[in-house]
Amino acid sequence: MQALALLLAASSAFAHFTISSPKSRKFDEDTENLGPCGNQVLGARSQFPITGGSIKGDLFHPTATANFSIVISNTDPTASQFGKVFVPIDGGKEATNVALKQGSFDSGSIDLSKVSGAVEGANATLQVVVTTTDGILYQCMDVTLSKDAAVAPAASSAAGTGNAAAASATGATTTTKSSAMGKGLGLLIAVASMLFVM
Ligand SMILES: [Cu+2]
Fold it and tell me: Which residues does 61 contact at the CB level (< 8 Å), separation at least 6?
């Protein structure tokens, strides 16, 4: 019983969730529960399309709910600025209270064209807030909006303009990630079986 408790404690501290696209601020699982942004400061910006982009990541818990918000700002937004504007997905629905399952996730195609200030060249920070068994977790992505930014493969295939090559590239990324995670999991299982033997 004690061994099981230890194992659960170890696995819940492990990774929580990560963002693969757009590029997120530094990931630190120990501070991911600190809002905003997992306690990470404004970082390098990547380009993000005004329409047709998406936010992708990986969840390492069985289930969670997520919200995806945006702040148009040149500076690092404060905690109270987040969670006011949720990115519009799937034809305008606000991306809040989105149910996620373990594994890779995708926000769906994001259309920022009706978001106030979301114009060509505007700087913005996206925040994903995930609520799961071990609390509320935060991750941010600093971006510059551009209609010329490459549209992420999964979003473009959802919009019907994707292709098989793009889809399989996404799959390959996921596989690499999960095998890296697999090493950690293997270690956990090794530790767990040792404990059960004892
Ligand atoms: Cu966790």
Answer: 12, 16, 17, 102, 132, 133, 134
Domain boundaries, the chain: 2-197
Cα(172) to centroid(ligand 1), Å: 24
- Strand 46-48 relative to strand 135-145, pairing: parallel
Ligand 1 mean position, distance from CA 28 (Å):
12
Q: How far is the CA of 165 from the centre of ligand 1 (A)?
A: 32
- Taking the centre of ligand 1 as the mean of its atom positions, its distance from the CA of residue 160, in whole angstroms, is 34
pLDDT in tens, 6-17: 444 444 456 899
| Domain 2-197 = CATH 1.20.1280 | no
Res 165 pLDDT > 90 = no
